[in-house]
């Protein structure tokens, strides 16, 4: 019976939906995390009578046809790139982006990664790095003698060196943005890499030309809403149960047919 296979695709689709929701909930406290959504598409249809086909020699046409679908499939899991809430941390190397843009990071394999996670540290050479030790572009070195490091809204990094009474410029953080930022590929460690779908990065200074501004001593939280995710989880569970009930119903119908024989 076709209903068995159709309902099975529904169960498989809702299983993937729950996996997406569970990943969102698991990353509720991940800095700069962007949630995903499961989008579904219907599968091919078996056409028994086509709409508009002729029904008599007089030229009458069938106003509506007879089509039976074969189920559902997972079409995409787009990432929702909306702004997350900004929380204070009181740590001078923590930086949050408010608006468009990503920090550019040099990955171990030489590729450039992009992140909204601005929880930066200094390595043994004073370079500004991520918590995994990946270099933040462009390379900014904060000397051992630096004190009171400040990062302005446009990314200017300054610090007082030794006993100087005026700050010294150490560099400027750059931001990158994409035509289709939802097309970026997530590779873990809060990093994304560009793809053909995302387009090439456009690099520029923060707080200018459509880029967002920076806020020192703060971090951007995940844009996951716990109440919404739980509601979506319940809906996915109910949809899974209904598809399972269809399989049970189809099985009972087949059993009744076999008993008639």
From TrEMBL:
Residue intervals of the Flagellar hook protein FlgE/F/G-like D1 domain: 96-159
The organism's place on the tree of life at top rank: Bacteria
UniProt main location, coarse: other
Species this protein is from: Maritalea porphyrae
Protein name per the record: Flagellar basal-body rod protein FlgG
Domain Flagellar basal body rod protein N-terminal: 4-34
Cross-referenced Pfam families: Flg_bb_rod (PF00460), Flg_bbr_C (PF06429), LlgE_F_G_D1 (PF22692)
Subunit structure comment from the entry: The basal body constitutes a major portion of the flagellar organelle and consists of four rings (L,P,S, and M) mounted on a central rod. The rod consists of about 26 subunits of FlgG in the distal portion, and FlgB, FlgC and FlgF are thought to build up the proximal portion of the rod with about 6 subunits each.
UniProt family annotation: Belongs to the flagella basal body rod proteins family.
Compartments it resides in: Bacterial flagellum basal body
Entry keywords, A to Z: Bacterial flagellum, Cell projection, Cilium, Flagellum
Domain Flagellar basal-body/hook protein C-terminal: 216-260
């Amino acid at each position: 019976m076709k209903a068995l296979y159709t309902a099975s695709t529904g169960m498989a689709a809702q299983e993937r939906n729950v996996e997406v929701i569970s990943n969102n909930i698991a990353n509720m406290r991940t800095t700069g995390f962007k949630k995903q959504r499961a989008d579904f598409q219907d599968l091919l249809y078996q056409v028994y009578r086509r709409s508009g086909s002729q029904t008599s020699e007089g030229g009458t046409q069938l106003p509506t046809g007879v089509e039976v679908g074969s189920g559902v499939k997972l079409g995409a899991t787009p990432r929702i790139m909306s702004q997350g809430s900004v929380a204070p941390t009181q740590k001078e190397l923590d930086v949050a982006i408010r608006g468009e843009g990503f920090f550019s990071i040099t990955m171990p394999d030489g590729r450039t990664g992009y992140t909204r996670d601005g929880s930066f540290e200094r390595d043994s050479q004073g370079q500004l790095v991520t918590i995994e030790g990946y270099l933040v572009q462009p390379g900014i070195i904060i000397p051992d003698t630096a004190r009171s490091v400040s990062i302005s809204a446009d990314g200017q990094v300054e610090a007082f060196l030794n006993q100087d009474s005026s700050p010294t410029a150490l560099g400027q953080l750059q931001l990158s943005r994409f035509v289709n930022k939802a097309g970026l590929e997530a590779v873990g460690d809060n990093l994304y890499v560009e793809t053909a779908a995302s387009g090439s990065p456009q690099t520029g200074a923060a707080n200018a030309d459509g880029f967002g501004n920076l806020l020192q001593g703060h971090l951007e939280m995940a844009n996951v809403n716990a109440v919404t995710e739980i509601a979506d989880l319940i809906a996915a569970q109910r949809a899974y149960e209904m598809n399972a009930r269809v399989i049970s119903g189809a099985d009972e119908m087949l059993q009744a047919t076999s008993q008639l024989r």
